[in-house]
Amino acid sequence: MTSTQYTRLLKIDDIAPVTRLLSTSEYIYQRFTLEELPTLLKKYPAVGLFHGNALQGFLLSQTVSAPSAWIGGFGVSWTESRSYVSMLDTLLAQLTPHLVKRGARHLYYSGNDLDNDWLRTLLLARDFKLHRLLYAYDKVDFNIPSPGNQQVLVRPVESGDIPALLAIEQACFEDFWRYDAFSFEDIIATHPYFVVVEWQGQVVGYQFNALDDEYGYLVRIAVHPSASGNAIGVRLMSEAINFFKRANVLRIMLNTQEDNTHAHRLYEWFGFVRVPQIGFVLRKNL
Q1: pLDDT tens readout for residues 43-76
Q2: What pTM was estimated for this model as a whole?
Q3: Distance of CA 150 to CAs 138, 205, 230, 235, Å?
Q4: How crowded is residue 177: how many other Cβ atoms within 10 Å of its Cβ?
Q5: Residue 22 — φ and ψ, nearest 5°?
Q6: DSSP H helix total and E strand total for the chain
Q7: DSSP bridge pairs for 99
């Protein structure tokens, strides 16, 4: 960092320069949608590198839920492209204390392509370690082999469902995958489809999706282990496919952990085809 540069925490007023950098830079990592950006800047630590009033680079965190935090975005202006490595070092050093103060002990980064991710090698050289491999699946039709359990109630999520959602997170996922209450509130506000399923009067599962032009993203399906074996996951999957059909997407995409064989079987039964590209998760101890 030169003597004329300085770093500071980003705030909601920085949306415009961050958005402008996102649209003009060749060095961008973005794990969020533009609709989510205001919430990220209000809720989670983010740092920017400035020259005068000009934003030259940023590093955003996402889903900071102790003991885990995620890198949500990184970007460098095109005028500073040659300095993206040193800027990453500067921004990581500035962001880390704020994450630790929030209770984070591990920082995660996810990429979609193990062989061609431009940040992976840099992060591995900065004490990040390979933590998980992810498989990607695509589906290009709307065929449904089974509608699943028709006796359960599938309905739109409500804010009062968040305690039940948190219990499902605790039962189904490792800590670094779990959403906290604020994350769920944000997802409810920003995602076009989010439903829960009730069984025997209790919320035992949920599913939400995202859209990006002609592509649909099946983000997550979760069913509490106490309700497994009742075709509830099948019902949620069939409802998701119908949503994407109504949205007229050309392709439905999802990612899942390499070792999640139960989910693999469900996806493949529904006609999803695994693609060669392998995603990954890196982790650094803070």
Answers
A1: 999 999 999 989 999 999 988 888 999 999 999 9
A2: 0.87
A3: 26, 14, 10, 7
A4: 18
A5: -60, -35
A6: 8, 13
A7: none
